[in-house]
Amino acid sequence: MTLTGREAGIDLLETALADCVAGHSRIVLIEAGTGCGKSALVDLVAERAAASGALVLYAVGAPEEQQVPLGVLRQLVNSEQVFALPKPSEGPGAPSRVEAMQAFCAELRELSLDCPVVLCVDDVQYADRESLQYVQYLARHARTAPVLVVVAGTVHAPAQDPAFTTELMRQPHFRRMRLERLTAAEVALVRGRQEPSAHAAETADTAELHRISGGNPLLLRALVEEAAGRGAPESAATDPCAPSFPSPEPGGPFAQAVATCLRRSGPDGLALARAAALLGEQATAARVTRLTGLDAAAARRGLAALEASGLLEGLRFRHPAARAAALEECDPQTLTALHQGAARVLGEDRGPVLAVAGHLLAACAEGRPLDCRPAEVAVLRDAAEELLVRGDAREAARLLELAARGRGDEHVERGIRVRLAQITARFDPAAAERQLGELLQAARAGLLDAEQVQPLAGLLLAQGQFAEAAALLPAALGEPAASALDTLVDATAAVGERLLQSARLTDATVAPLAQAVRSLICSEHPERAVPWSRNLLEEALRCQAPGWSAVFAALHAEALLRMGDLRGAYAHATAALEALPERGGSFPCAPAAVLIRACTAMGRFTEASRLADRQVPKGLLTGLHGLAFLRARGLYRLAVNQPHAALADFLEVGRLMEAGRVDRPAFLPWRTDAAEALLRLGEGARAEQLALQQLTLPDAQRPYVRGVSLRIKALTGDPKRRTALLGQAVEALHRSGDRVEAARAMAELGRALQADGSPAKGSAMIRSAWNLAKEAEATALCREILPDAPLTTPAARDRTPSEATPAVGTTAKLSSSEQRVATLAAQGLTNREISAKLYLTVSTVEQHLTRVYRKLQITSRGDLPTGLSPVPHPTPA
What we know:
The structure is a single chain. By secondary structure, the chain is mainly α. The strands form two sheets. A five-stranded parallel sheet has the order 2-3-4-1-5, sandwiched between helices. A two-stranded antiparallel sheet has the order 6-7. Strand 3 (117-122), helix 5 and strand 4 form a beta-alpha-beta unit. Helix 4 crosses helix 5 (129-141). The longest helix has 19 residues, at 3-21. The two termini are 74 Å apart.
């Protein structure tokens, strides 16, 4: 009924009241949705009746009193204390029920002789059956008396006495009115605004108020009151068509009004509202009915009543605050049961797995136990995989944690736990590592099948636990007599790059891809690992997987360190540690090792000390990451003049590598590290023995291993062969791409040349070594090579003419190509090495050098000036 209809309803009530005062009997039934104004009309007619001199008897039904006999009738007679209510059928002399109703009717007729009598019964749907019988008897037998009966009830409510309304309708003096919800136009009038002339913002306000309240007057009033107590939203200032009132909040006046309406809707209405709120987008009439356990007829009436009151639109709440209000007062036990029931109902209907899983997860919130059935376990697993596709690994892990606690065979549970560890590794490698203990024991006992062993081995490989992985997959990682690192170290660069080109980053491929990058780092072409590790790091960042990001940031840092890019290695190793939610487990040892080595080389000893002095459990040092950490700590101790402590670290690395059958110098040349410490301690014979031993290993054919081994051999062997051996070491280390180690070997070669009677050539080599170390920002090595050389270039105005002239004069005479060739030659590279580095023929290099000698008026490489600008190194950042 429109607002005009409401006014007509008031007119109808006033007419009925006037007829009653004139001596006629009238019956009026008011029906409306909860909160739609029926109680206000009852109060209005009672107030006007009292003002006209009528006797008003008033009663309100309540759900908790519905089963109390004559409860409403007692309210009526006690409201004015007009007469005592008879007590039928309570003894041999007591009147019968009919006699009691006759007496009640007679009393009212007698009272009406003095003044009109008005009976008002609100919320009649909760009136007890006996009271309804009295009102019904009165309606039939008081037609000629000035009695007005006003009954108000909620539309679609279940009737306590189905014949009650029908009996009233049979009376000729009966009138029925139904209050509908407010329309948008009526909302505008209620707010005091005329819609046709309203501004855009007012129109938007009206539409939004009507949409949220559903035209329910009680909810509308609560919305307006809430808006009055809060400021306008920010969007109203920028969008003239946006609503100027704030959206209702959970727990605010609007939400409280919704809760009131739901409580007044009765137990069935409240249960249906909670079921609809819980099911949300998945709510259907059939599902809501099954979740509440109501019969179909009761559910239909209840849902219709909720929609009539404007609380629901279809089966959806009109605002999130209203939906929250439906569940706010639900106790934890009931809420748990509802979530379990919702999961069951949706599971039976094969509803969306994410919705089912969400209810199962909510059911075990706040530590409440939940024992999932096998079908629910399967749903949780499917939902976890769907969440992974969406990039939500943490929520997927929560679902699998719940699935692992469900009922099912142990084999399924172990498979779930393997998958859980895989997913956890995406965002927390330390947590994933903790989950592997029981799985590893089960694998050793033969309780895992091949599909479960494969990902478990991949997780172990990603954590550097090569020995454990080899024990699980001996066929994949080599023969039992071979090193567990053999497959990784001996793989050709082409093999690794084929995998990197073809595989996409997933849980199944993260370990193989990481091993392919590590294989490139250990290969004869470590520079190829730089772009691949960078690409994988970018892909991991796009996947929003902090664990993967840490893995590939650490590998990228290691690749950059291998090429002598100390600053880049430092930055990415720091990023790898920052990506980890916690620093536990063995994996953080990998980026920490790179950071220690980079800080040590850059002379940042205080920072290196904080990392190196961290206590690491011995059990974490047996894997590759732990070994790398031990070596890095030894190199730091060696740099700060603690050779005994450094030697202990290097020898422990060797012992662990030999015990774990991972002794490959291409990965970690511990023998030459130990030899360096022994040289500091004056034990040249032992140092030479370790260097010679490393040169006998197959990895000695690799440029990096050969270079560092020859350098130590030169320093410990026959001085007459020192220059030649150091020359070979420099050549090998240049080919390896490691600028820091190449600079170190060049400095030793320069000293050897000076000792052999070539001071100019030796000085030039030392200066080139210093320049190369400075280019790599290896501050500690620069100070070792030339302690007194300034590490910062003075500004042009601060230079003396003697400092500026050589560089200016030199570069002015040489072309850019000649300058690049001369710079590399001054650094000690051979013509063939220069040709490979600059993509020139050897003949072209020789021609450039001939012109350089002529322009600079020199006769050999040893006379090349040290003021030449260094050739920019092509190492990617």
